[in-house]
């Protein structure tokens, strides 16, 4: 089977799982397991419930109030447990596993600090609509509320960042709770669900019965868009002279990539993508303009500002995309398609709102346009956008050879070269958060959904590395590379031990500028170069750290070392860390200043001016705010 065939089979499997979730059925054996009707402890029933849901991997960390559950897990022949070195790392691993595979990620931890250590990971998943089931041990029911040892109100603590939560009160509710948890996590707009289990229930006796169906009166996600609104949307598209699609993570979640491409190509509509939407449309497709917003391209941002119809699909109009909301897409009517009704009208009031699943709604929209034999109104619009793309590219080869630091490594160069070396049909890239994340977003080309994993809404430093471990465990045949910063990598560096223990040959490439790069950049541009606690000393020695954990490692600092180092990293059958040293003052361009409209772009390359970076409104030639004394000479 070729990589392309394998990918198609994987998509088909994910679609089948999605349909199973919608129908409210277990993902595994359900009531047809060997456990049905048997007497067992609550802890054994928890493990049996997970097996009935088809769970094959759990990420976690044991402790006193979860010890009975871990004792039951010891006997499972179907579930592999990944021992993280920190509960936050375990939650990010489950998140990466879920994003890469489309399955529900599962976390198991103990009470108190074990539970609270998952909060950042839960919030990260919640902000990016990732399905997780987080199981936390709790103190016995008789002492809840007494501040007993390692007690925490994890249900209360996580209430704002979960899709739903359960505090189990009786073994009578145990199997139904697990069925509901997986159903809620995986349907509608996916998200994390927490199950808090008092330890006395883990030891109580019960008879095991697992439900094959579920019905929750207060929870009925809408999948099919309103027919009248779909018709109205089709009419707007047929009349639009300058239409534009804004594709978000909902395209990826609903497996609507094929429908997106069909709409774009049929009506000759260019597409811009959010960070979560990367991979929703192949980067090789000429209609894909790529990233939009704060660090999007000038041509993508201009397309938003000049379009007369904006079709937002599975996107929530994040402030990192819209910039100054009152000036976002000022000439456009808006069609907003989202499965979460709470997102419709929250930021931008749409002309035509459609609540529904992106795949189902786009399929209906495409069918309607096909019946109407719809054609683009103005074939000059896409040609104009393409001319902008030619004039203001993200990156050019001649720019790479004429950077301000000719004897140093330019991050755009190393990431573009890495992108060329990765097989787009058999690789996954994860990122930490910061400058390196945006350089990766701009320069790593992806052809498929679920192959670029990054923390969008929460912007969680420490996410990318454990997420890479989870992704590699979920997709063992894919090459998995984490792009990290020297600051963010250290947030969960302890998970290097997990990679060794689990024999997971992930690769980590650190873009090392000895600074908290993105904050440093803002201080440089907007805070008069007052670098308040953002400079990092050149510690640790990442190569020695890699060796201490049993990894292979290498450090490079000169352009001529890049290709050989990348080849060595990708050829390694073991976990490998590549420390790529870049100048501290390197800046992510283009950029829109916070609170500015997205056409006020700093530092876009202009090939008509010889490939130099141009300033935004009110900014000097170096991209910094112009001062009363005149423009300063800069280093960018």
Outline the structure in words.
- It is a single chain.
- The chain is 35% helix and 17% strand.
- The protein has 24 helices and 24 strands.
- A six-stranded parallel sheet has the order 3-2-4-5-7-6, sandwiched between helices. Strands 11-10-9-12-13-14 form a six-stranded parallel sheet, with helices on both faces.
- Helix 4 packs parallel to helix 6 (119-127).
- The protein is globular.
Features:
alpha/beta; disordered C terminus
Helical fraction equals 25-40%
- The helix/strand class is alpha/beta
**Major β-sheet annotation:** 6 strands, parallel
- In the predicted model, the low-confidence regions spanning at least 5 consecutive residues are 621-636
Please give the count of helices: 24
Overall average residue pLDDT: 93
How many strand units? 24
Strand order of the largest sheet: 3-2-4-5-7-6
Q: Determine Rg (CA atoms, Å).
A: 25 Å
Span between termini: 47 Å
Strand content: 15-25%
Instruction: Estimate the global geometry from the Cα principal axes.
Output: globular
